[in-house]
Amino acid sequence: MMNKFYALKIKEIIRETPEAVSLSFDIPQDLKDKFSYKAGQYVTIKTDIDGKEIRRAYSLCSSPHTHEFKVTVKEVQGGVFSGLANNKLQAGDILEVHPPEGKFIFEPGVIPQNYAAFAAGSGITPVLSIIKTVLIREPESKFVLVYGNKSLDETIFFKELLELQVKHPERLFIEFIYSQTREENAQFGRIENSTVNYVLKNKFNGTSFKTFFLCGPEPMINSVTEILKQNGVPQDSILFELFTAKESDEIKIAAEGEGEVELTIMVDDEESSFSMDSKKTVLEVALDNDLDVPYSCQGGICSSCIARITEGTAVMRKNQILTDGEIAEGLILTCQAQPTSQVLKVDYDDV
């Protein structure tokens, strides 16, 4: 089954900051292949809390080349799973985990390169995995990290990043930025246009970067992307992953035939058909009918729920994942897709 979760035991819980913990998992020998991953990928964790199934996506902060399997969970106010992870989970507890996925990835090459990352808050998680992998697998490559937080106390992996910097002084360069406290050897403020210009035009003037990795809230990603493009960085050199989706007004979608749509879903080689309200999303209808389809964030910021349209048309309320080329091929995020034709067929197997 494509949407399979596996029971994994928590090996260790590491307190990173007062508001964040890392969960390290034991991967049994027979699951090593299934849980092999690329730097930057995430896993979906599934658990029942008060009788309700909860799914959350978390990036791996470990590197695939260190034989660790570790995610970091920052506690958010009112967060159901993040509260559990930070306050109640213990080593030895079992969680249901889906194998790694995601497109925010780094694949090592043989030619030395320069890379840069702009990360804010818990957006550092997949970026740390990428940094470690660059340092291990591309011994001549260099990495510039710009990392924004409210304060030093809230800076996840602060000690680990400093240790990496001391170990690789000619290869890893870190600019810490704090918005609420003034610290030595750090900038005061937020990651904004002037920060990007400082890195590109002052501190690393003349350096050519192969890839920029951006991870954090949507406004930061949008502004950094814009200023990078103004500085001549091509779109395909900018990779990003959102950690929090901005609440946007839902796009009003008028289906050609207002009202009911005939929806057919193919998943795990089984076809199911339903009549659906055109104002609902494909994923909502699939879950309403107890289909075991893949999903995680339900907010259009991960890629777990991708499917392919094989007949009909749909539009997405929001899309921060799929490229124009992938959309042209018929791929959709089913958590965001509403039909715009009276018949819609989607295939979760053909992605």
Descriptive key words:
six-stranded antiparallel sheet, 19 strands, Ubiquitin-like (UB roll), 7 helices, 3 domains, alpha/beta, globular, Rossmann fold, Elongation Factor Tu (Ef-tu), domain 3, 351 residues, six-stranded parallel sheet
Kindly describe this structure:
This is Ferredoxin. Its cofactor is FAD. Keywords: 2Fe-2S, FAD, Flavoprotein, Iron, Iron-sulfur, Metal-binding, Oxidoreductase. GO terms for molecular function: 2 iron, 2 sulfur cluster binding; flavin adenine dinucleotide binding; metal ion binding; oxidoreductase activity. Residues 261-351 form the 2Fe-2S ferredoxin-type domain. The chain has 351 residues and is an alpha/beta fold. The protein has three domains: 6-101, Translation factors (Elongation Factor Tu (Ef-tu), domain 3); 114-242, Nucleotide-binding domain of ferredoxin-NADP reductase (FNR) module (Rossmann fold, 3-Layer(aba) Sandwich), CATH 3.40.50.80; 260-347, Roll (Ubiquitin-like (UB roll)). It has seven helices and 19 strands. It has helices spanning 80-87, 124-137, 158-167, 193-203, 218-230, 282-288, 324-328, and strands spanning 6-17, 20-26, 42-49, 52-59, 70-74, 94-97, 114-120, 142-149, 172-178, 187-188, 211-217, 238-244, 260-267, 270-277, 306-311, 314-316, 331-333, 337-339, 343-347. The strands form four sheets. Strands 4-3-6-1-2-5 form a six-stranded antiparallel sheet. Strand 3 and strand 4 form a beta hairpin. It is globular and about 60 Å long. It starts with 5 loop residues before the first strand and ends with a strand. The relative contact order is 0.12. Mean pLDDT is 89; it is low at 246-257.
